[in-house]
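Hi Y.,

Following your request, here is the sequence exactly as I used it, all 296 residues.
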Amino acid sequence: MLEHTLSEEEHSQIVHTIEMFEAITQTQPDDYQSLEILREAYQKVGRHAESWRVSRRLAEAYFNVGSHTNAMQECEAILAKDPNAPDILAMLGEIETRLQASGQTIATAASKNGSTEESDGSLIDIGSRTGKVGKLANLHERGDDHLAKFLVVQQLFAEDEVHSALESVTQLNKDLSGQALAVSLLDHLCKENVERLEAVLSALIDRTKFAYVPLEYYDVDRQIAPMLPDYLTVGRLFVPFDLVSRTVMVACCNPFDVAGREALQQSVDYTVTWYLARPSAIVKNLQSIYRLDTRV
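Below is the corresponding structure, written out as C-alpha coordinates. Let me know if you'd prefer a different format.
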Protein backbone atom coordinates (compact mmCIF):
# COMPACT_ATOMS: atom_id res chain seq x y z
CA MET A 1 0.00 0.00 0.00
CA LEU A 2 2.79 2.43 0.89
CA GLU A 3 5.58 1.04 -1.29
CA HIS A 4 4.96 3.41 -4.21
CA THR A 5 4.84 7.16 -4.78
CA LEU A 6 2.63 8.44 -2.02
CA SER A 7 -0.69 10.04 -2.81
CA GLU A 8 -1.73 13.12 -0.88
CA GLU A 9 -4.05 11.01 1.27
CA GLU A 10 -1.33 8.45 2.03
CA HIS A 11 1.15 11.19 2.87
CA SER A 12 -1.37 12.79 5.21
CA GLN A 13 -2.03 9.46 6.93
CA ILE A 14 1.68 8.84 7.52
CA VAL A 15 2.11 12.35 8.91
CA HIS A 16 -0.74 11.60 11.31
CA THR A 17 1.00 8.35 12.26
CA ILE A 18 4.20 10.29 12.93
CA GLU A 19 2.41 12.72 15.23
CA MET A 20 0.77 9.89 17.17
CA PHE A 21 3.95 7.86 17.61
CA GLU A 22 6.03 10.90 18.51
CA ALA A 23 3.57 11.40 21.38
CA ILE A 24 3.75 7.73 22.38
CA THR A 25 7.55 7.62 22.38
CA GLN A 26 7.83 10.86 24.34
CA THR A 27 5.97 9.25 27.24
CA GLN A 28 7.48 5.77 26.65
CA PRO A 29 11.03 6.41 25.39
CA ASP A 30 12.06 2.74 25.56
CA ASP A 31 9.16 1.52 23.40
CA TYR A 32 11.40 0.23 20.62
CA GLN A 33 8.48 -1.13 18.57
CA SER A 34 6.97 2.33 18.24
CA LEU A 35 10.38 3.84 17.51
CA GLU A 36 10.90 1.34 14.68
CA ILE A 37 7.56 2.36 13.16
CA LEU A 38 8.29 6.04 13.68
CA ARG A 39 11.65 5.78 11.93
CA GLU A 40 10.14 3.98 8.95
CA ALA A 41 7.31 6.51 8.73
CA TYR A 42 9.83 9.36 8.55
CA GLN A 43 11.69 7.49 5.80
CA LYS A 44 8.48 7.04 3.82
CA VAL A 45 7.84 10.78 3.66
CA GLY A 46 11.47 11.60 2.94
CA ARG A 47 12.24 13.23 6.30
CA HIS A 48 15.65 11.62 6.61
CA ALA A 49 17.05 13.93 9.30
CA GLU A 50 14.18 12.97 11.62
CA SER A 51 14.62 9.29 10.71
CA TRP A 52 18.30 9.59 11.64
CA ARG A 53 17.37 11.19 14.97
CA VAL A 54 14.96 8.33 15.73
CA SER A 55 17.69 5.79 14.91
CA ARG A 56 19.76 7.19 17.76
CA ARG A 57 16.76 7.02 20.10
CA LEU A 58 16.15 3.43 18.96
CA ALA A 59 19.73 2.43 19.80
CA GLU A 60 19.27 3.87 23.30
CA ALA A 61 15.93 2.09 23.72
CA TYR A 62 17.41 -1.28 22.75
CA PHE A 63 20.28 -0.66 25.14
CA ASN A 64 17.98 0.34 28.01
CA VAL A 65 15.80 -2.79 27.73
CA GLY A 66 18.85 -5.06 27.54
CA SER A 67 18.57 -6.00 23.85
CA HIS A 68 22.29 -5.53 23.37
CA THR A 69 22.68 -7.22 19.99
CA ASN A 70 20.03 -5.01 18.39
CA ALA A 71 21.54 -1.96 20.10
CA MET A 72 24.96 -2.89 18.76
CA GLN A 73 23.64 -3.19 15.21
CA GLU A 74 21.94 0.20 15.45
CA CYS A 75 25.17 1.75 16.77
CA GLU A 76 27.20 0.26 13.95
CA ALA A 77 24.72 1.55 11.34
CA ILE A 78 24.91 5.03 12.86
CA LEU A 79 28.72 4.98 13.00
CA ALA A 80 28.85 3.97 9.33
CA LYS A 81 27.46 7.43 8.56
CA ASP A 82 28.89 9.35 11.52
CA PRO A 83 32.11 7.57 12.59
CA ASN A 84 32.97 10.08 15.30
CA ALA A 85 29.66 10.25 17.19
CA PRO A 86 30.95 10.25 20.79
CA ASP A 87 27.74 9.11 22.48
CA ILE A 88 27.31 6.19 20.07
CA LEU A 89 30.98 5.17 20.43
CA ALA A 90 30.56 5.19 24.20
CA MET A 91 27.38 3.11 23.99
CA LEU A 92 29.01 0.59 21.67
CA GLY A 93 31.93 0.24 24.07
CA GLU A 94 29.55 -0.38 26.97
CA ILE A 95 27.65 -2.97 24.95
CA GLU A 96 30.83 -4.84 24.09
CA THR A 97 31.88 -4.80 27.74
CA ARG A 98 28.53 -6.21 28.88
CA LEU A 99 28.47 -8.91 26.23
CA GLN A 100 31.99 -9.99 27.07
CA ALA A 101 31.21 -9.93 30.79
CA SER A 102 28.30 -12.29 30.22
CA GLY A 103 30.55 -14.75 28.42
CA GLN A 104 29.48 -13.80 24.92
CA THR A 105 31.80 -12.69 22.13
CA ILE A 106 30.66 -10.02 19.74
CA ALA A 107 30.72 -12.55 16.90
CA THR A 108 28.48 -14.95 18.82
CA ALA A 109 26.05 -12.19 19.68
CA ALA A 110 25.84 -11.08 16.07
CA SER A 111 25.25 -14.61 14.79
CA LYS A 112 22.50 -15.18 17.36
CA ASN A 113 20.64 -12.14 16.13
CA GLY A 114 20.11 -13.81 12.79
CA SER A 115 18.16 -16.70 14.26
CA THR A 116 16.56 -15.59 17.50
CA GLU A 117 15.97 -12.59 19.70
CA GLU A 118 17.74 -11.95 22.97
CA SER A 119 15.88 -12.99 26.07
CA ASP A 120 17.92 -11.27 28.77
CA GLY A 121 16.10 -7.97 28.57
CA SER A 122 13.34 -6.64 30.74
CA LEU A 123 10.56 -7.34 28.24
CA ILE A 124 8.24 -10.16 29.25
CA ASP A 125 7.65 -12.89 26.70
CA ILE A 126 3.89 -13.39 26.46
CA GLY A 127 3.92 -14.52 22.85
CA SER A 128 5.79 -14.02 19.62
CA ARG A 129 6.41 -10.39 18.74
CA THR A 130 7.58 -11.28 15.24
CA GLY A 131 4.61 -13.58 14.69
CA LYS A 132 6.74 -16.61 13.71
CA VAL A 133 4.57 -19.35 15.12
CA GLY A 134 4.46 -22.98 14.20
CA LYS A 135 1.06 -24.59 14.61
CA LEU A 136 -2.41 -23.10 14.58
CA ALA A 137 -3.35 -21.46 17.84
CA ASN A 138 -5.96 -22.99 20.14
CA LEU A 139 -8.68 -20.37 19.84
CA HIS A 140 -10.62 -21.82 22.75
CA GLU A 141 -8.03 -20.10 24.94
CA ARG A 142 -8.93 -16.41 25.15
CA GLY A 143 -6.47 -15.36 27.86
CA ASP A 144 -9.22 -14.26 30.26
CA ASP A 145 -8.11 -16.79 32.87
CA HIS A 146 -4.60 -15.37 32.83
CA LEU A 147 -5.90 -11.83 32.96
CA ALA A 148 -8.15 -12.73 35.90
CA LYS A 149 -5.21 -14.20 37.82
CA PHE A 150 -3.16 -11.10 37.09
CA LEU A 151 -5.89 -8.79 38.44
CA VAL A 152 -6.17 -10.82 41.64
CA VAL A 153 -2.41 -11.16 42.20
CA GLN A 154 -1.96 -7.42 41.65
CA GLN A 155 -4.77 -6.83 44.19
CA LEU A 156 -6.66 -4.70 41.70
CA PHE A 157 -9.92 -6.57 42.38
CA ALA A 158 -11.20 -8.99 44.99
CA GLU A 159 -10.98 -12.66 44.03
CA ASP A 160 -14.72 -13.30 44.30
CA GLU A 161 -15.47 -10.23 42.16
CA VAL A 162 -13.08 -11.39 39.44
CA HIS A 163 -14.38 -14.97 39.57
CA SER A 164 -17.97 -13.81 39.16
CA ALA A 165 -17.07 -11.51 36.26
CA LEU A 166 -15.03 -14.24 34.58
CA GLU A 167 -17.95 -16.67 34.69
CA SER A 168 -20.28 -14.08 33.15
CA VAL A 169 -17.84 -13.08 30.40
CA THR A 170 -16.99 -16.69 29.59
CA GLN A 171 -20.67 -17.46 29.14
CA LEU A 172 -21.25 -14.37 26.98
CA ASN A 173 -18.28 -15.19 24.76
CA LYS A 174 -19.17 -18.87 24.41
CA ASP A 175 -19.74 -20.05 20.85
CA LEU A 176 -19.47 -16.64 19.20
CA SER A 177 -20.20 -16.78 15.48
CA GLY A 178 -20.34 -14.36 12.58
CA GLN A 179 -19.97 -10.74 13.60
CA ALA A 180 -20.90 -11.30 17.22
CA LEU A 181 -19.08 -8.71 19.32
CA ALA A 182 -17.13 -10.22 22.22
CA VAL A 183 -17.27 -8.90 25.77
CA SER A 184 -14.15 -7.63 27.55
CA LEU A 185 -13.41 -8.85 31.07
CA LEU A 186 -11.88 -5.45 31.87
CA ASP A 187 -14.96 -3.62 30.62
CA HIS A 188 -17.21 -5.97 32.60
CA LEU A 189 -15.24 -5.34 35.79
CA CYS A 190 -14.53 -1.62 35.50
CA LYS A 191 -17.79 -0.54 33.84
CA GLU A 192 -17.86 3.26 34.19
CA ASN A 193 -15.16 3.45 36.88
CA VAL A 194 -12.46 5.40 35.03
CA GLU A 195 -10.00 5.40 37.93
CA ARG A 196 -10.12 1.61 38.23
CA LEU A 197 -9.59 1.18 34.52
CA GLU A 198 -6.64 3.58 34.56
CA ALA A 199 -5.04 1.58 37.38
CA VAL A 200 -5.50 -1.69 35.49
CA LEU A 201 -4.12 -0.30 32.23
CA SER A 202 -1.11 1.13 34.04
CA ALA A 203 -0.41 -2.24 35.68
CA LEU A 204 -0.77 -4.07 32.36
CA ILE A 205 1.61 -1.68 30.63
CA ASP A 206 4.19 -2.17 33.39
CA ARG A 207 3.79 -5.94 33.26
CA THR A 208 3.69 -6.58 29.51
CA LYS A 209 5.60 -3.55 28.15
CA PHE A 210 2.88 -3.05 25.56
CA ALA A 211 2.69 0.53 24.35
CA TYR A 212 -0.62 2.31 24.98
CA VAL A 213 -2.50 3.87 22.06
CA PRO A 214 -5.33 6.38 22.71
CA LEU A 215 -7.52 4.75 20.10
CA GLU A 216 -10.43 7.08 20.79
CA TYR A 217 -8.39 9.94 19.28
CA TYR A 218 -6.72 7.97 16.48
CA ASP A 219 -7.75 8.26 12.85
CA VAL A 220 -8.22 4.51 12.40
CA ASP A 221 -7.68 3.09 8.90
CA ARG A 222 -11.10 1.49 8.49
CA GLN A 223 -10.06 -0.53 5.43
CA ILE A 224 -7.74 -2.90 7.32
CA ALA A 225 -10.10 -4.68 9.73
CA PRO A 226 -12.52 -6.07 7.08
CA MET A 227 -9.51 -7.79 5.46
CA LEU A 228 -9.14 -9.97 8.57
CA PRO A 229 -11.41 -12.77 9.85
CA ASP A 230 -14.35 -11.52 11.92
CA TYR A 231 -13.63 -14.05 14.66
CA LEU A 232 -10.29 -12.32 15.25
CA THR A 233 -11.53 -8.73 15.20
CA VAL A 234 -15.05 -8.56 16.63
CA GLY A 235 -14.62 -12.00 18.22
CA ARG A 236 -11.38 -11.18 20.07
CA LEU A 237 -11.71 -7.37 20.29
CA PHE A 238 -8.70 -6.69 18.05
CA VAL A 239 -8.60 -3.43 16.08
CA PRO A 240 -6.00 -3.09 13.31
CA PHE A 241 -5.69 0.67 13.29
CA ASP A 242 -2.84 1.52 10.92
CA LEU A 243 -0.56 0.07 8.27
CA VAL A 244 2.93 1.39 7.60
CA SER A 245 4.84 -0.45 4.86
CA ARG A 246 4.95 -4.11 5.99
CA THR A 247 3.82 -3.48 9.56
CA VAL A 248 0.21 -3.57 10.73
CA MET A 249 -0.56 -2.04 14.12
CA VAL A 250 -3.24 -3.74 16.19
CA ALA A 251 -4.89 -2.62 19.45
CA CYS A 252 -6.19 -5.09 22.02
CA CYS A 253 -7.52 -4.89 25.58
CA ASN A 254 -6.21 -8.25 26.80
CA PRO A 255 -2.50 -8.73 26.07
CA PHE A 256 -2.69 -12.23 27.60
CA ASP A 257 -4.72 -13.52 24.64
CA VAL A 258 -1.68 -15.21 23.12
CA ALA A 259 -3.72 -17.67 21.03
CA GLY A 260 -5.70 -14.89 19.39
CA ARG A 261 -2.60 -12.84 18.68
CA GLU A 262 -0.81 -15.79 17.12
CA ALA A 263 -3.86 -16.59 14.97
CA LEU A 264 -4.03 -13.00 13.73
CA GLN A 265 -0.34 -13.06 12.81
CA GLN A 266 -0.89 -16.27 10.87
CA SER A 267 -3.73 -14.65 8.92
CA VAL A 268 -1.65 -11.76 7.52
CA ASP A 269 1.56 -11.49 5.55
CA TYR A 270 2.77 -8.53 7.60
CA THR A 271 4.71 -7.91 10.75
CA VAL A 272 2.22 -7.24 13.55
CA THR A 273 2.92 -4.84 16.41
CA TRP A 274 0.55 -4.87 19.38
CA TYR A 275 -0.76 -2.01 21.48
CA LEU A 276 -3.01 -1.72 24.51
CA ALA A 277 -6.17 0.38 24.32
CA ARG A 278 -9.28 1.05 26.35
CA PRO A 279 -11.96 -1.63 25.84
CA SER A 280 -14.61 1.01 25.19
CA ALA A 281 -12.50 2.59 22.44
CA ILE A 282 -11.95 -0.80 20.82
CA VAL A 283 -15.66 -1.67 20.96
CA LYS A 284 -16.67 1.73 19.58
CA ASN A 285 -14.31 1.39 16.63
CA LEU A 286 -15.46 -2.14 15.85
CA GLN A 287 -19.09 -1.07 16.01
CA SER A 288 -18.35 1.75 13.60
CA ILE A 289 -16.29 -0.33 11.17
CA TYR A 290 -18.74 -3.24 11.04
CA ARG A 291 -21.90 -1.22 11.76
CA LEU A 292 -22.76 -3.32 14.78
CA ASP A 293 -25.29 -2.72 17.51
CA THR A 294 -24.17 -2.57 21.14
CA ARG A 295 -24.25 -6.01 22.72
CA VAL A 296 -26.02 -6.13 26.04
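The CA atoms of residues 223 and 289 lie 8 Å apart.

Thanks again,
Q.
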